[in-house]
Amino acid sequence: MIDLVSRSTWGARAPSGSYTTLASTRGVKVHYTGGHVDPATLTDHSRCVAAVRGIQRGHMDGNGWIDIGYSMIACPHRKVFVGRGPGHLPAANGPGLNSAHYAVLGLVGTSGVVTPPDGVLHGIRDAIEWLRAKGGAGKEIKGHRDGYSTDCPGDALYAWVQAGAPRPVTTTPPTEEEEVPEVVSLGLSAEATVKPNINHSPWWTEEYRDTAGWHPAGGQSIAPDVDVWADVTTFIALRGFQPGERVEVGLTRHLADGSLVDCAWPTGRLMAVHADVDGCVETNLNGHLKLSATNRGRVTIRHTSANTITLEVASAFKAILHPYA
Ligand SMILES: [Zn+2]
Ligand SMILES: [Zn+2]
Questions:
Q1: Distance from residue 119's CA to the centre of ligand 2 (Å)
Q2: pTM exceeds 0.70
Q3: 117: CA distance to ligand 2 center in Å?
Q4: Rounded CA gap, 127 and 234, in Å?
């Protein structure tokens, strides 16, 4: 079921002219932003709304178009924004190429959010089906680069388009004996200060917790009560460092008393990251952790900065859990 964001909901400006109507098209062309997509959009839908409004502003005030150029826009939360909508000529495919295909944008870019989240892929697919049902879109699913000189929609989305734009499969269904939790939430609900670890002992300094209640202390460790491999994708954002200052981050495994067992496979150690010129660190962590009722997963951050370091985001977007083989 498509989760539409109406033009009034996203605060669209009215078109500055009349749309050219379309009874049907050969299909749909898929696009990406071609710019930076802030990873914070992954956990904050209001940033998706702001991004879509910004794109409309650029298309109307910058390009001089009558409206945002896309027919529909899919965000990481599997919501689909109505751009020009079905039955109207888009403007994003390139001169002479707009009447043949509707234009659907996925909110991924060339930096920040580069790998299309499942929500974006489902959203694009939802938009395609909607445009078929409501706008006479034909069967074709193509990329902007088909027939027009551009990198759009980026290699990742283009490979997906060429594969026929399949819906993402999020889990392999467990057998009855192997029933395991499917998704772990690991989200920081408010900013937190990360204390320095001046003498590096103990090695692991901070634990970031949610309120999901899996952790006995009410925290956010990943602590299933069954033996599973967890494939975790995490994003963290820190600020307050001196430019270039070093911080170490990792996915780690701990006993209930907090003592370290090991780091996520296959990296096996913390990763060193250096703060950018603004003193910020934004990084993804991916890894496999063998978890159980007694072995818990954590996001570990270690630094020795004299500054006050703020953790802005710490979230696990998805954790696919498999029983021990
Ligand atoms: Zn494009
Ligand atoms: Zn969103």
A1: 9
A2: no
A3: 11
A4: 28
